[in-house]
UniProtKB/TrEMBL annotation, chain A:
The keyword Transferase applies. It holds the Pfam family TusA. Residues 12-36 form the UPF0033 domain. This is Sulfurtransferase TusA family protein. Keywords: Transferase. Belongs to the sulfur carrier protein TusA family. One of its GO terms (molecular function) is transferase activity. It comes from the Archaea.
UniProtKB/TrEMBL annotation, chain B:
Transmembrane segments: none annotated. This is NAD(P)/FAD-dependent oxidoreductase. It holds the Pfam family Pyr_redox_2. It comes from Halorientalis pallida. GO terms for molecular function: oxidoreductase activity. Residues 4-295 form the FAD/NAD(P)-binding domain. InterPro entries: FAD/NAD-bd_sf, FAD/NAD-binding_dom, SQRD. It comes from the Archaea.
Amino acid sequence: MSETEHEPDVTVDSRGATCPGPLMDLIGKVKESDPGTVIELQTSDNGSKSDVPEWLDEAGHDLLEVVDHDDYWSMYVEIN
Amino acid sequence: MTEHIVVVGGGTGGTVLANRLAEKLGPEIERGDARVTLVSDDPDHVYKPTFLYVPFGKKTVEDAKRPLADLVDHAVDVEIDRVTGVDTDGKRLSLRDSGSTGYDQLALALGAQLVPEELPGLAEGGHHFYGPDGAQELRETMAEFTEGHLVLSVIGTPHMCPAAPVEFVLMADAWFRQRGVREDVEITYTYPIQRAHAIQNVADWASEAFEERDIDVETFFNADEVDPEAGVLHSMEGAELDYDLLVGIPPHEGSDLVTEAGLGDDGWADVDKHTLESDHAEDVYVLGDLADVPTSKAGSVAHYEAGAVADRIASRTRGETPTATYDGKTVCFIESGMDEATFVDFEYGTQPTVREPSKPVHWAKLGYNESYWLTARGLL
């Protein structure tokens, strides 16, 4: 799957960063964004697939979709 | 024609680099084929790891600094001035006091800056030990603190010296025990992600040490407001922590010069992690805390990076092809109390092993802190 219906308001490119870089980049962006914002987190770190959903659950935001692009993933997040 | 090499920043990265260049390019400087200028807006060199010991009365803020002029090789021109602009196309730097200067090769080592004001209430309600004033104020507060809840919150990420928050709470635990008040002091450590430290093995080791010493840990805790009146720390995740003494690792930022010069879009400079060459400009290197590389913002990183950058600049000055690279080598001592320590060392992509803490490693850390001044001179 490489197509998505989600239109991000903002994209965070964390490709190449290792854990916990992508999660910290996402947290930083969430901190400065308003509720309803859709963020696309681009990550090539396998650990993001577990630590990002875990944090979203803790912080009460939604993971809309994860799209596999072969060499990285796009994780679509909506801020509540 | 004289090759003009300008190093900006008088911290570990800039000072070690300038001294290494003086050594490697000695004959070229002697002949007038090369010139090395170190520009810093502070006439003193500051060794920041000293500040960790100040709150416990083991060092003073004065111990952390020495005049830059005493540490830098006489073959280097030291300019006390502030760089206010970088033109990488024209290869010129604007200077606050003395106009401008051209360069053939440029190395930026401006460090990271503390911005506690980024978190509402932190400057008023929190303490820190990441700078001289903060460390001195915390020393006085700690001296009076005999009961209540001490909360150490890692707020800023990335931040300098990633081991220091872990060290601080382990040292505080031992210090309060020595003072006979530990039973009346509750200690809590908070961290932004799902474990106690970014590095998994350090997190595992620290979690075990915290449990043994009755230090509470709150993970997934991203502070978003301090209420100094009520003594409450709020997190993005909706948690609240009451505190009597808050030690907050402040948010950090890179440099506006980086953003304005197009060397990175968020204040941290985009570089090749092995060569430290800018992704966006020719003949520009960035090292130390300012460079966005996937390892710690630590003095050892700046030190080892400076070795590789000096070698590359020297090669290029001689018309050779540079071959030296930085492999991510990072060494951090970690105090685990007031008289024991361990250390970790790792490179890009590797996990450090945390060894059993011991007294000799603690003595080695204290000894290294003294011999650091030889590192700054480029000798160690």
